[in-house]
Amino acid sequence: MKQFFSVGTGLTLLFFLSSFCPAEETSPSSDKKKNEKYSAKELVMKTMGGRQFWGDVQFFQGWKIQQHVISQHYRLLDPKDQRHASGSLADCQQRLEEIKAAEQLPPMRGKAVILVHGIIRSSKSFVKMKETCQQKGWLVVPFDYPSTQRTIPENANYLGKVIQSLEGIEEINVVVHSMGGLIVRSWLAQQDVVDPRVKRMVMLGVPNQGADMADRFRSNLLFKAIFGPAGQQLVTEVNSDFISNLPTPPFSFGVIAGGRNTLKGYNPLIRGDNDGTVAVSSTRLPGAADFIMLPVLHSFMMNDPETISYTLRFLETGVFRDSGKPQPIPVPQTVTVP
């Protein structure tokens, strides 16, 4: 019981949670219109939320099919998060095909950008990044997964299904925040051959070496209840080798870290410079084509204008700076003992 009621631990955990859970922005809702295209049998309904219990398994032009982690049933959502079907996967796929024909939805093609959120968050946390990518003419895939209900490898399975569903897309780029980067690396571990369409990835505040704060709170009952099984996998190598065994992406990737460029970062509980949640040193993954540190807090990186600018430049050119000069993170040379 001391774990729950220690004032110091409680306040520290509250600070930690607040860094993950600011209010998520949503796009302005449009006026409600009567939908006369569908019969009462296919009544269109606004979802009731519960994003932590649904994982995406298929995507098409903003439409997505999701699976519930407990009941295992599926639902079909339109780009405005309105439900158009519910039941088996086959039911939802059939309904999607009917809608494709009725609305004459064009096939997907060109370049897609998958946005992968972090733990406790949802794709809504990428609203400004999404809008900016769409202005480039890219198809944006706002990937949702039950981050607190399943392990990182289990959530990576959802990502794999979504990537498989992107038929017609010629190039795939990925932008990941926090644990989202570990989801992608876990997906890579599950592949015999990585989809050759995946070209570039930008990592925003990803704990590639684990998170000190997860080490601190991993035994706390409240932390376990809120962050779930994936939260236990965010610890550093001192407590687990899960993250250290994840593969390095075989495609070009860049790392953006948040920090103050001082010996102490935004959070005094984290060793060295940090963004309030993840240490700068933890974001550095050897093999990165480029690295840059910006004065931005962890939870606001995805919608920070400067971060978005650097992210888009890397997706287009493979470097962060307009000078074209990268600052790669070298892979340590192994010493062979004769």
Automatic annotation (TrEMBL):
<keyword id="KW-0732">Signal</keyword>
<dbReference type="GO" id="GO:0016787">
    <property type="term" value="F:hydrolase activity"/>
</dbReference>
<keyword id="KW-0378">Hydrolase</keyword>
<feature type="signal peptide">
    <location>
        <begin position="1"/>
        <end position="23"/>
    </location>
</feature>
<feature type="domain" description="DUF7379">
    <location>
        <begin position="114"/>
        <end position="224"/>
    </location>
</feature>
<dbReference type="InterPro" id="IPR055803">
    <property type="entry name" value="DUF7379"/>
</dbReference>
<dbReference type="InterPro" id="IPR029058">
    <property type="entry name" value="AB_hydrolase_fold"/>
</dbReference>
<protein>
    <submittedName>
        <fullName>Alpha/beta hydrolase family protein</fullName>
    </submittedName>
</protein>
<dbReference type="Pfam" id="PF24096">
    <property type="entry name" value="DUF7379"/>
</dbReference>
